[in-house]
What we know:
Order of helices and strands: HEHHEE
CATH class: Alpha Beta
Distance between the termini: 13 Å
Structural class: alpha+beta
Amino acid sequence: MKRSPLLAALVAIEDRPAYFRRLKTDLRPGARVAVIEPNRDLGGLLSLTLDDGHTSSAPEVAEEMAQAGYTLDASHDFLAVQIFQVYAPAGDDR
Length: 94
């Protein structure tokens, strides 16, 4: 299966739930959306280099993706200062 990445900085997307709702219409069956975003909740050096407008919290991302009609498919914690969550369109059993 060919996978095509789509890269976008969440900070650059004004209405994220609306953006991800529109994106669903372009996803192939079985496609997933991976969100890798600086994690506001971890602080540390990240908090010295990025302001809150350039970071997100995991619950905030999850809420926005739920509003857009996605469910959490996987969450990874191996990135030191970033959220790494994978979402599937709700009801997508493909």
